[in-house]
Amino acid sequence: MPDVRTSARPHAPGTRSGPSASELLGFARRTAADAALIASLPLDPEGRTWIRLDGPDGSEAWLIGWPPGTGTGWHDHGGSRGAFAVADGELTEQSLTAQLPTEGWKTLELADGVDRARTLRDGHGRAFGPHHVHQVLNFSADTHAVSVHAYYPPLPLMRRYSRTGQVLRLEQVERPEEWGPEV
User: Closest Cα partner for 102 from 121, 77, 73, 123?
Assistant: First the structure.
């Protein structure tokens, strides 16, 4: 698959570092509207497919295809802010409204009322801050979904979690060389 690497532009001392979550969402929505780019993504009935894109101002971006019934599992983005927009089909994001500690825990009992779910369709998206924990799912039984994701700074790591009821457990910390795209 094509792999278009991004390069971070240096910032002068005292200036803002990279695009905001809102700017990442704008990029994701504009890119999701590019019909030729969306059509260039090969779709696989067995697993997700992706193309790495040039994101704005040194960010990392991905075009991702989601076969029916696939998802990411619970994860965070290692302190990066981000955004994603659906280009085709429908995705459901399940997220937590509570800010979790980033270090020093393996198991956490979640309070009642921290769960949120939203379904996003063509052209709609979501921006999030650096402590966002979520999973993204294609619940369709027969339709692929395609989405655009952007992160700044480029993902330094991802934490993967398992969840049973209100108990969230840190299962793994992954580095970029260990995975393809995630949301």
Answer: 77
pTM of the model: 0.86
Question: What domains are there in the chain, each with its CATH number?
Answer: 21-178 (2.60.120.10)
Kindly state the average pLDDT of the residues 11-28. 80
Find the length of the chain: 183
| C-alpha distances in Å from residue 70, one per residue of 33, 44, 47, 65, 109 | 23, 11, 7, 10, 26
130 neighbors 124 (Cβ within 8 angstroms): no
